[in-house]
Amino acid sequence: MAYPRQPLFAPNGAVATSQPLAAAAGLAVLRRGGNAVDAALATAITLTVVQPPSNDIGGDLFAIVWDGERLHGLNASGRSPAALTREMVLVATDRRGATPVDALGGAQAQGPAMPARGWLPVTVPGAPAGWRDLHERFGSLPFADLFTDAIGYAERGYPVAAGTAATWARAVAAPGPAGAEYAEFDRVFTVDGRAPRPGERWRNPDAAGTLRRIAATGAADFYQGRIAAEIDAHAARTGGLITGDDLARHASTWVDPVSVRYRGHEVWELPPNGQGVAALLALNILDGVDLAALSPAERLHWQIEAVKLGFADAHAYVADPERVPVPTAALLDPGYAAARRALLTDRAGDPVAGDPERGGTVYLCTADSGGMMVSLIQSTYLAFGSRVVLPGHGFALQNRGTGFRLDPTHPNVVGPARRPFHTIIPGFLTRDGAPVGPFGVMGGHMQPQGHVQLVSATLDAGRDPQAALDTPRWYWHAGRSVLVEPALGAEQDLVAGLRARGHEVTVAAEPAVFGYGQAIWRHPAGGYVAGSESRVDGAMLGW
């Protein structure tokens, strides 16, 4: 008999993430007197070493911070190279072909798509600058102290966790691209051409050296120093477009999180270029539906249909707001939600974008004894990103440019020095302006629908964070096809009810498609209650 995992209750602080060694790194920082931002950074930096298929030094980062009084948002995503053009991509994809990927939920299935590997989808890594910027604004311990565990595991090695090993094996088993830019991947990230096995010790001393330089220089070496120069040189040698100037121009952006009301609470996400608005659009629609009065099949039907409309609008309008105006306020207006809600019926539909009025990944959350809380997510995208590894430095560069469109009329069209549509989204929950806590569900296209399901399980079903995370999930990708976890598939009445409404339901065998989540809520009696993903190596630790 399998017993459900219980939530963690902690009086002073907590850390929740998808890898126990990284969670322990964050907890150690809390116990040394660091705050929630220090703990989040130690966890995030350690995750690049102990869960490399999902995130790396060469990735991006987004964060929401509750500082004790209000929320702050950091968009630490990078921009495309200044030399990148749509025409250049079209020539390359016409010559080699490109495989549409999950970034846009099937929206790129027709016509040419951005390539998923190699130099063309590489954007400037934003994570190292994001670590520095979060620390400069909120950190309390010395920046270099937050790298101790990560450097130690990279230099001396660690036993690979089972869930990470499974993801690693799937990535290495997939056919790999050929070319000089990929030559370093096997040396760094395989053991004689295979992935490390569960419990097998793996080390990455080159990454230890890179992390030391980032720690010692406050990431300056990555963007203006030796590492930047070597990225520039490697790109020039092997057909890449990214240059030292692209790296030197990089800057994170502090943003105001955006929210909608749901069941008397405020659900917060970061504004575009991330896809968090898809979750908010869906929740805004669902807030006008009495889900408690519906049957289980009807509840899931409404959630699925609301998520479809949320994605339709996100895919139509989300782009780099520094380049193209994004109608975020209009999309989240309650009147617009009511108009979108009116489109839904008791039959599965094919979503189309509305017309609002104009005006892979790891997730972690932390909380400290002073009331500060952090929701942070970082990724290289897909598995090992672009698979371009900088020789001698032990990290892969991300392939976030895969999120661009090739349609010249689309606001998210590929081009120079712009941020692409981004899948990684941290979430935060408040009630009447008071913090409830951080949450997130990683997994590409799964993320907004994972947020909807976690929030609904919390506020509609009244479940604690662990029970909410353990609630069986569903996943919509495109059309009328819906994947459900086996526990949902076993509920014959529910599946029959969905199929009767036109949904094409399949019971999935692969757990990874349903994402991995974490959550920490403030406990009414004091302290915190935390949950972590039971589908993988998730851990929540407190003190």
Automatic annotation (TrEMBL):
Pfam families reported for this sequence: G_glu_transpept
Membrane spanning segments where? none
What SUPFAM superfamilies does the record tag this protein with? Answer: N-terminal nucleophile aminohydrolases (Ntn hydrolases)
**Record-level Gene Ontology MF annotations:** transferase activity
What keywords does the record list, in alphabetical order? Transferase
InterPro entries recorded: GGT-like_enzyme, GGT_lsub, GGT_ssub_C, Ntn_hydrolases_N
Question: What protein name applies here?
Answer: Gamma-glutamyltransferase 2. Threonine peptidase. MEROPS family T03
Origin organism of this chain? Micromonospora inositola
